[in-house]
Amino acid sequence: MPSEWRQGSVLRAADVQVSLGASIDRCPLPPVDAAADRLMILTQDCDLVHDRLEDEPWAELIPLRPLGSYDKNRDNPCLHGKNPRRLVFQIEGESPAVWWCIDPHSRFRIPRETLNDLSPSLNRSLPGTTASFLARWISRRYTRAAMADAFNARLKQKSSELGDLWKSVDAEAVSGVYVLGAREELLESQDYQLDVILSIASDSSRDQDLLEKAQNASRTLDSILDSCPGIKVVRLSERLEQDITLGELRNYQRLDLDYRSGSDRPNASRPAEQVD
Asked: What pTM was computed for the model?
């Protein structure tokens, strides 16, 4: 496989129809517009260049579709990975700036050897950071914690307050929130009894100001959760990442705050397993 292909490579417009014709899956709907849409390689670099075709027979593509115009009500909830079914984003450094969107259901596969006769569009391919962000967003459909619907419904009542907290400077050193006790579906008359760990990025341990802000975030989170009908906080502790054990991570579930790594929150800490 030619080494110029990588995750984030975009096919030339002339090769779009070839790729769609080689698809072993249902082609995306609505149909791909070869003049406006992009087809991006989603497959990881090492799989693209794997020397045994029988071990890695497919390359996965996903259409990137230009929005044309940005609609605040429609598109704001889809920024930075907040919506698991639709992502709206811009490509850093692209001029003129364009709003793009993807949905995870549009992915399709082609035989990897098809790429041997094609070449990436070098001036349109995505930066590695953008490509890995798109891949992480799609993978979270399968890896995000499956909390009880009843718990999610109760927590949603506090979504505005929680959103304000995660946007605050107090939360910049917070790399994750892990909860124990939110897996089971409970009756409306029953309360969720939570044990909560607020993790603090390890590199913040040397900054007393950041530690104090994280403690403020912990107190605010405790107040928000405890004021939510049907949710009671039994224990909430703020812990440095190096003090959280693998055993705890096995049992606790992580709240999805990954959207904070978007361009509007460049200083927000991410979970250790999400760091590039």
From this structure: 0.71
